[in-house]
Description:
- The chain has one domain (4-10, 19-237): Rossmann fold (3-Layer(aba) Sandwich).
- Helix 2 (30-41) links the parallel strand 1 (21-25) and strand 2.
- The relative contact order is 0.14.
- By secondary structure, it is α/β, with parallel strands linked by helices.
- 44% of the residues lie in helices and 15% in strands.
Amino acid sequence: MLPDHDQDRxxxxxxxxxxxxxxxxxxxxxxxxxxxxxxxxxxxAVAGVDRNADxxxxxxxxxxxxxxxxxxxxxxxxxxxRVAAEVGPPEVLVNxxxxxxxxxxxxATPDQLRQMMDVNVGPALWLTQAVAPYMKKRGSGSITFVSxxxxxxxxxxxxxxxxxxxxxxxxxxxxxxxxxxxxxRVNAVAPQLIDTPVNRSFLPEEVMAHATSPExxxxxxxxxxxxxxxxxxxxxxxxxxx
Length: 242
């Protein structure tokens, strides 16, 4: 939790603030870190949020590090307000945090389903609620999430996970309808499998041979989030690899 004065503070524009601010949540992980680096390269002032302090410490110089767990609605609002006050109101929000779980539908437990929803769907909604007022005030903005192939295609053995990602993809379309009239675009990318150390730790090599690199997924996210994605809203872009 951030200190109370950071949670409650609004923002006042200052000439020292950046005109183009991107907020990357999950920036302590491989995908979030890649997105942050590429957004810096695209000319944004980037703030990276993660509950993992060690992961945040791996971000390059110039990326503002903001610790916080966005699965908590109060913390999600606090980190957005803090970035708006200290860096500038975000023009771009990218949320990359998520979790994965194996288990068929008949063995799914309330706790498993709740965890998947709380991590894979909740932060997307809480962060959007927090950032939308800033984007509405500027008359534009871009929000990008990370869904999954299994949100759109049935796949046995990952019931709670695929349900949560399907909910996230549907949220993208709902938010698009609600926010596009205010100039705010909402999209997602949908990988099948990302090449990360965690995935390599438990998946066989022949499966990982078809994984997509975090850098490749980050390229798509930055395309959607930036000026190049201006015509696109309400899309869930397949990024399945080969």
